[in-house]
Amino acid sequence: MNLDFHSLFGNDIDFYTANVYDSCMLLGLSVIEEDSVNSTRIRNVLPTVAEDYIGLTGGCGLDINGDRCVFRTGFYGLSVAETDLWKSIGYLDSTSYQNRK
């Protein structure tokens, strides 16, 4: 996937883009599954679709609150130099956090 992305856009897929991709895929797959664009029907089927979906950011299954069971979240810092730029400074992987409980 990254090779195709790089050939089209000239850079690698970053964490933010990978999350947007997974979100769009889950929405699209839910619409296809329900054969409808009715938001209530899509909301009801989305957890089932997400349960089996492994995306660019990993497993996308949801818990009872609608949050990802396994998630990675990025942390960014603002570099104030000649040009302001958000820089990735790390990320949290919930599997390492959940294992410490």
Q: Give the number of helices.
A: 4
Oligomer class: single chain
For the termini, the CA-CA separation is 34 Å
* Estimated radius of gyration: 16 Å
How many structural domains does the protein architecture include? 1
- Overall mean pLDDT stands at 86
Largest pleated sheet: 2 strands, antiparallel
SSE class: alpha+beta
Level of helix content?
Answer: 40-55%
Shape: globular
Please list the strands of the largest sheet in the order they lie side by side. Answer: 1-2
Outline the low-pLDDT stretches: none
Order of helices and strands: HHHEEEEH
Strand segment tally? 4
Roughly what fraction of the amino acids lie in strands? 15-25%
How would you describe this structure to a colleague?
The chain has helices spanning 2-9, 15-34, 39-51, 94-98; strands at 54-55, 58-59, 72-80, 84-93. The chain has 101 residues and is α+β, with helices and mostly antiparallel strands. It has one domain (2-98). The strands form 2 sheets. Strands 1-2 form a two-stranded antiparallel ribbon. A two-stranded antiparallel sheet has the order 3-4. β1 and β2 form a beta hairpin. α2 crosses α3. It is globular, with a radius of gyration of 16 Å. The termini are far apart.
Q: Any chance you could write out the topology, listing elements then pairs?
A:
Layout: H1 2-9, H2 15-34, H3 39-51, E1 54-55, E2 58-59, E3 72-80, E4 84-93, H4 94-98
In short:
By secondary structure, this protein is of the alpha+beta class.
